[in-house]
Amino acid sequence: MKKILVFLFLLLFGQRASAAMLYSQSANQDVYEGQTFVVDWFLDTEGRPVNSFDLKLNFSSDVLEATDASRGNSLINLWIKSPTADNQKGLIELTGGIANGANNNKIPVFHSVFRAKKTGIAFIKLNPTSIILLNDGRGTSEQLKFKDELFNVYPKAYIPVAISSPTHPDQNVWYSNRNVEIKFTPKAATDYSFSFSSNADMIPEDKKAEIPKNLSYHDLPDGIYYFKLNSKVGPSVWKEAGVFRTQIDTIPPESFRPLIASSPAVFGGRAFVSFSTVDKTSGISHYKVKVGLFRDSIETKSPYQLRKPWVGDNIMITAYDKAGNSTTVTIPWRGYLSVLQFKLLLVFLGLSALVVNWIIRKRLMKLKVK
Amino acid sequence: MNFKETKFFIGLIILAVAVLSLPKNILATNYSSTNFTVTNPVTDAGQTSSSSSNFGLGQSVSQTAIGKSTSTNFQLWSGFQYYFKVNANTLTATVGNGQVALSWTVPSTFLGIAVSSYEVGVGTTSGSYTFTDRGNVTSYTQTGLTNGTAYYFKIKAKSAGGLFLTFSNEASATPTGVSSGGGGGIFPPPPSGTGTLIVKGLAYPSSQVSLLRDAQVVAVTTADPGAAFNIQLSGLTPATYIFGVYTTDKDGLKSPTYTFSETFSTGVTITVDNLFIAPSIGLSHSIIKKGDTITAFGYTAPKSKVNIFFNSPQQFIENVTSGTNGEWVKAFNTSVLDLGSHTSKSQAAISSKLSDYSHTLEFAVADKSLETPVGECRRSDFNCDGRVNLIDFSILLYFWHQTNPSNIKVDINKDGIVDLTDFSILLFDWTG
Prior knowledge:
The complex is a heterodimer. Chain A is mostly beta strands. In chain A, 12% of the residues lie in helices and 43% in strands. Chain A starts with a helix and ends with a helix. In chain B, 9% of the residues lie in helices and 39% in strands.
């Protein structure tokens, strides 16, 4: 009785040790050799606002290859280091933050895609040097919890059913087509149930479903969709038969306003432009900057040091998402000559050439007459 | 009259008395009787009907003295005297390059009046505008503005006869061509989706309230004299966003930023209501001689109860009521504090609303006093433009992981290296 009372007291009044938790979500329970699968990463702040982190994740590089580590639909709005994967070291690194902090149990942090290289057991672990800081104005370190992820990679021959999509054939590519068709060939004497959802946790019901002739889904909003197929032979239990992923992104990155500034201590006091935006579906892929009329557009990062062009009125900055959608913003930045001045100069030079030509011709005519 | 008729008439009289004694809802505009007794006139023009049972008739026509009714030219119109009522509309300003897009709600009107046209007021000083009639529209883009200059806008609603009805709130915006980094509101262009966010609450009287979306300021409005504000952001594409709201008081002190995340799907409007932004806070001294008086001050909503916390091993709580302009000031004798470091913060309460805590300020109790420096740039504001934004983030990136950087401000916590702790402090101070 005394023990029960102590337990109840602790349950009611005991202080829970606060810590943020990094956790993952994957649609795949079973992974097969050669397949790719998505692992999305989220942060649960567990009641205490956090604002910045430096994360390192180790994975089994002998079994897995990270084919993508990117921002995805992350809510992290300022990045020191975008997610990058090193397949030699089996390491994913990222450093970023949220302006003014956030306190939520599901903050999308980043998106990763792995390819199973060979059969075996694969892990993803948090490197103990990872840091997460509270939004308290002092940069106080917060404890970071993590549950190791384990994946069993089975031989390719064990794939129960091959699923494909004629409209979205490559599971790793983002498409702008919002209508999805799914195909698979059912096996004889096998029951199937299936689901199609953008929720990676959604699983088909343990109930036989009729398979329609055309499995198609129309006018889908942007996002990643998972077609999940479960099967059952005779009186056995329902098992995962396959997962097929389709990725749709039609919306360009969010609009943004770059800022031009100069600071004596940065870039030797020369002007620089700062820019940042987010893409809510596939994530920002890269930026391109074009300064002046004649210079080429170049791929670069923020901050970008500016050199005054000979001719130009603007700087054009284009943000591209991973689906190739883009948002371009233009901000004034005059070169030594504006485009109008340059055109006037061309007209003036052209007219001068005409006048000179006319004078020369006239003099030549006079000489001929003489 | 026989007995039956007598019963009938008595019944009729009882019924009439019962009907007349019932409380009535009378429309001010529904007056047609030519033979009446005023029992329940309309008492509030804001309501279209009234059920008052306790009133006085304020106006009537009679002789002013015996035999002295001398007017030769007057008319007594049948009916109650009533007035129209118009509620103020809400104006939102979104900046562009050399222009500001304005949109406003239609004011609610009562008792037979309708808005027929609007004048857009534009000025470069708060409270002073030049008005131009723009017809019966609820949006207008003011072009030809100078980038980097703060403009103030107000909408005047008019009736069909040109009668002034109401003013909107004042909205301010600074068009950006961006030439020297920072300055006023730096807004991205309006997004192109269909979601709408409405944020309402209490700030400080006539203070500027900023709305951030994913670390960028996307709208700024001015709270009314009662501290109420209303910001609307439309065109949001279906996605999850992190928003932040903060306000700046008359002394330039900023409230903490209230952050929240919302997920929008197509066509959805989300209203975040009843926000009570935390008070601003300043301290007269950064170091105070033990026994001397330190003064805490700031702004909040008018007539709020402000609790001021002085934290040492023992917490001391003082309180004061803010003035009609939202200002609060509280002196505190430090003789009860030990020598060493202490902190102070505040929290406001009004009606049943309780604000978040203000920023926490540090001060030291020592054997001498040092007033808080005035006009110094905030920490994290590396380029001293009054904002902590992408430019400061860029400067931090430039010095990232440098030890003893040449720009010592970037090493905010003075530990000799520009690292995640400095980044975290910058994010805490972020104003967009």
